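yo

u said u wanted the structure for the complex thing, so here. seqs first:
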Amino acid sequence: MATVFIPPQMRDLTGGADRVAAAGATLREVLRALEAVHPGLAARVALGEGIAPGLAVSIDGAITARGLLAPVQPESEIHILPAIGGG
Amino acid sequence: MATKTSPDKKKTGKAADTTNGEPQAFKVIGTRPIRHDGVDKVTGRAIYGADVQMAGLVHGRILRSPHAHARIKAIDMSAAEKMPGVVAVVTGKDMPDLRDKMADLGEGTVNLAHLGANCLAHGKVLYKGQAVAAVAATSPHIAEEALKKIKVEYEPLPAVTWVLDAMKDDAPLLHDNVFTSEMGKLGKQPSNIAVHLHFEKGDVEKGFAEADVTIEREYKTASVHQGYIEPHVSTALWNHDCHLTIWTSTQGAFTARQQTAELLQIAISQVTVVPCEIGGGFGGKISVYLEPVAAILSRKCGRPVKMIMNRNEVFEGTGPTPGSFVRVKLGAKKDGRLVAGEAWLAYDAGAFPGGMIGPGCMCVFSCYDLPNARVDGYDVVLNKPKTAAYRAPGATQAAFACESVIDELAEKLGIDPIELRLKNAAREGTRRVDGPTYPRVGLVETLEAARNSDHWRSKLTGKNRGRGIACGYWFNIGLKSSAAANVNPDGTVTLVEGSTDIGGTRTSVAMQLAETLGIAAEDVHPQVGDTDSVGYTDVTGGSRVTFATGLAAYEVGLDIRRQMAARAAMLWECKPEEVTFADGVFRRGDKSTSFKELAGKMHQTGGAVVGRATVDPEGPSHGFGAHIADVEVDPDTGKVTVLRYTALQDAGRAIHPSYVEGQMQGGSVQGIGWALNEEYFYDDSGRMRNASYLDYRMPTAFDLPMIDTIIVEVPNPAHPYGVRGVGETPIVAPPAALAAAIYRAAGVRLRELPMAPHRVWTAKKMTNDEC
Amino acid sequence: MVKKTHVSTTINGETAEFLCEPRQSLLEILRDTLELTGSKEGCNNGNCGACTVLMDGLPVNSCLVLAVEAEGATITTIEGIAEQAHLHPLQQCFLENAALQCGICTPGFIVAAKALLDRNPKPTEHDIRFELAGNLCRCTGYDKIVRAVQDAAAALEGKH
Ligand code: FES
Ligand code: FES
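structre next:
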């Protein structure tokens, strides 16, 4: 199962848990699995097919470019981060 | 692994070494060919945005708000419209009403109503210099005169220009539809605080309780401008078939196209953006300012409209970087091991939300392995121009604070500042405060190269002199790039890519294609395509072009190699898989043919060979740097002179070392300017009082020494040639490095940027008075 | 509108005549009327040097010169620096030293550096930095520009 790290500002939705395990081959599946246990989380992370405005998702250290279609490995570490751009 | 590179221009390739498991002996990478667009740029032939000429061209000018905050009660344009020579006048009412529409621009999401109001105000002005109306006329002088005839009735409102003031409960509220977002959870009351971020790792209280030494300090930085020498410029033609073509100076033609289409609510396919040569950007030429305005003027008058900002407008109407307040607290054991950190950052976003607080929070402790840490950050709107990205946006302010505290810790613990950093340096596996762990990164190697450098080992003698060191970090992003290449019968290749070239990237991208094909850099002819002639490509920014568009060029090379191998197989009557390729030569058994020879037979083996690739590599590729500065402080005036400066950086792999050095030198000098004298100087009514180059005073050649560079190469495992981005990291370290040097020269710790003579002098005087 | 004035000059070795309004700068005429767009506008008020041209051998900010003042003057712009088919050593040295990134400041630097080398063929680093302080570059940090001028001075010395 992948490990999703929950940022402090979303822990109100996970009963304070800072990381939760979830199964799924894509980010969409992982979020769906999470949503079943922690309702409201998916809506905060995703919007439509993409990541919610202002946020980014890092899977194993790489900021995913594929939104919810991003592949997830069984041992993946998933982080929800603020979006970054650059100059 | 570190090479001191400055004066050596020899065209020699890198020695064979091992990148990412593959033995690699480079022929092209690591050499210094003359850039492909060079001759046009030294002869004045290159066509920049302002050089666009066409029949029937008229000139647009913008009327800007004289108030920092005001309601627009009425605009009377009738006198201007009647002036001979005036062909169109527009206001915000001529743009669609976009309410709270959002658009994903690849590099981030923007609120279109905000973006639109930043191009032409709707109902309210939020900073002095905000665009209110625009005129097109047969000459720029007539347009300028017409502006004076537009009557705008304002109701001035109280303004706020300092971030901590804007956060107060009784501060003037800029927007009644901005609510504090905490990772997507919105506050209930409208607020100037657009974003609050919070990261936490470990047990911070326990960490500080274990510390032998704790230091907590507060830092302030002023707004500074990107300062590109070419002002914003756009020419738009809304043709009679309703197709809109825009020739513009932009870091990203595709994002300019998308922003313009979204703002005008027209189809993307209705817009072609032609990126002209661009005279600098540094993050400030990603948002559109003039493009939609020139477009609606052109729609109104049926002629091409050219708009050029003057320098004053660039300062007052386009993106500076956030002014900031940052508090950093670090705790360490006696042996120098960091045990806890805490940071509180407030960055101003300017008049609209969407500042640089995210990366600020993620970068503040990015150089260190902190077991316990907490970061809080605030993105705050106030009555200054909407901020724009500026080279490692948000990182410099944070590093000034963190690196300065590290320097104080080193002093208090009696540990050499490089040793203290090495003891705590982020490395592979270090978990960042925001969560992810680092892959293979080069901070340790960079610090070791600093410790071994001539500069660090040399003695600095003389009165009022001091040396400082600081680290810097930037993510370096990935994103989308496309490229295509045609093989010519003479064995050369034309390459079309979508990244506008601001600092020689045509060449660094072309070199990667040349390397992949085993041909000379000069045998690739790179061009930057417009939005109709190349696949989608994200902005030239985030230190991504040599990395991501370079990767696209590599993939194009592989595609061409595959196709050419099939041609060779046809000639040799074998299977394509049996053909191998190395060093520019295709082989099978005892048969061989060079890339050039085979290209000559292209037409008898099936016609043109066109390679193409589109990539979307996932960043970040993590760039670390360390800067060493020697300064002398004039005891009578407080003026700081930089005597010697060395920038070190892990480039992963330097494709064209001269342009890597150039990025390091240019970024260092922007950082030096930020540190020592640049600032937006505001009066009490929220007016910027120094909106000219003369008064803003960026560094000149006379203010500086040579900037030495040491390129460290710890190859990026996520790129076939090991490239990491290099453009942004070099601006991050200078303020803290200079503050540390000033402390050793003058005995005072400066905690506010710029460290201008009056501040240094006053700080010195205060310490002397205390004694 | 005021009547236009007839001005006759020599630009890059050729006679150039134009009509201009009294308020138009030499830079504006060069760029918009004569289509010599190599001289750049960075500030239009004498602060950046991107518009530098030689007027009777001396470097001037063409944005601060009124076009009418150019009557009878001999002007060299960036377009007139190369010698027929050959780049000027300054141009060649700027290329070899990678002394340009975005390149917008480059025409101004090359023209100003030519004025410097014409007057002072063996400038020290200090001389170069002092003489070019009126030309702003935001990309390079000046290091490679200074080296390019040093190399050009050496190359020109070898030529003479
Ligand atoms: S444009 Fe003339 S000095 Fe800047
Ligand atoms: S090369 Fe860009 S301003 Fe000098």
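The helical segments of chain C are 26-33, 89-96, 106-119, 125-131, 143-159. Chain C has two domains: 5-80, 89-159.
cya
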